[in-house]
Structures
1.
Amino acid sequence: MNTEKRSREFYVLAIFFTLFVLFLYGPLSAIVILSFQGPNGGLTFPLNGVSLRWFANLFEQQAVGDFGGSFRRSFVLGVMVMVVTVVVSLLAGLAFRRKFRGATALFYLSVASLVVPSIIISLGIGVLFSQLGFQPAWYTSGFGAHLTWTLPFGVLIMFAIFNRFSPAYEEAARDLGATSWQTFRHVVLPMIAPPLIGVGLFGFTLSYDEFARTLMTSGTYNTLPLEIYGMTTNVTTPVLYALGTVTTLFSFLVIAGTLGLIMAMNRRRGRA
């Protein structure tokens, strides 16, 4: 009886997971397929031939849209946010290992932006910059808006990491004569490096595809999500699908590269 019940539960979960995967990747697969439309193809099925015409069109002069510029801005902004998120989250994780006055209030203050609607934060930052006489731009106000989204996640992840980190390793290093900096560099940092890379990847991806918090803070020049959204109202060729395919492939390459780096570090640590 128990075997039959477990088998039934397995099939229910398998069906649910299959439906979830189809719901998640079904629309994406449609975009990928339509990006290979023939030269005379449109924005809907059926395909009118197969070609790479629209991928080549991405590198040509466009009447509407700035693919290259928006991608570069999103990439640079993502890297900036990633670096700051990793550094600040790491420092916050180290600081909160010791109890200090006001730690609870500071914690809730740091994660409060997660419960505030993103568009409200974007609007508030944009209005604040305008009132102070500064021109909103993706590398100033947009950068700050993205940090209100990525830093709380980074801090929460580092808290979870250090809650499971045993101080016995640091005590052993200090007993052997290591200084505080040597203990951090040679003991703590190598052990938390894989999850720290994960925090960096999380910060980059959250910034790279953020729309709501960029809407009122990007200034004159669009980031890639804003550019794609703007193109949906005036682009009538599958070049938009080709752009979606290329950016999706780039995202998967970033994730695969990060996972490969983490696996390499784990193997190296295992050999050591």
Note: The longest helix spans residues 2-34.
2.
Amino acid sequence: MLILSFFDADYFLLPNTLTYWLIFLGLLCNYTAYGLVPFDHAFYGFLSGVGLFYSIYLWGYFICQKCVLGFGDVKLFGAIGAWCGLEKLPYILLLGSFLGLSIYCAVLITIKDRIKKVAFGSCLSFSTLMVLSFYFSSYHSIN
């Protein structure tokens, strides 16, 4: 996921081979007994992530007549749902949106120039890592 986030920050592109492998490995890992979440949560997380972002993709295209969200972001959010499950997706989306907004505001304040787009895949990746690290730190402090 870190490779995807750095690649997205540089080129505003998420390669299909990496995102498809991330989806496959997320579902496969959660199918075993050592997964992060039960498999049904991972499967519904994948479907919900793809469905939500694809609907945003379509609505943005119909309203603005241009792509407001890249299709790589749709696949990445589906992969995040496959790894983390349905329950963590709202937190990841909220944190990723705040991270993207803060990056945009920081660039606007420091450079005083409007940027046309923000690498949202990087924001989603880092917010996923933050949510998972918070989840594991709180899980291990309880047990």
Note: The chain has one domain: 2-142.
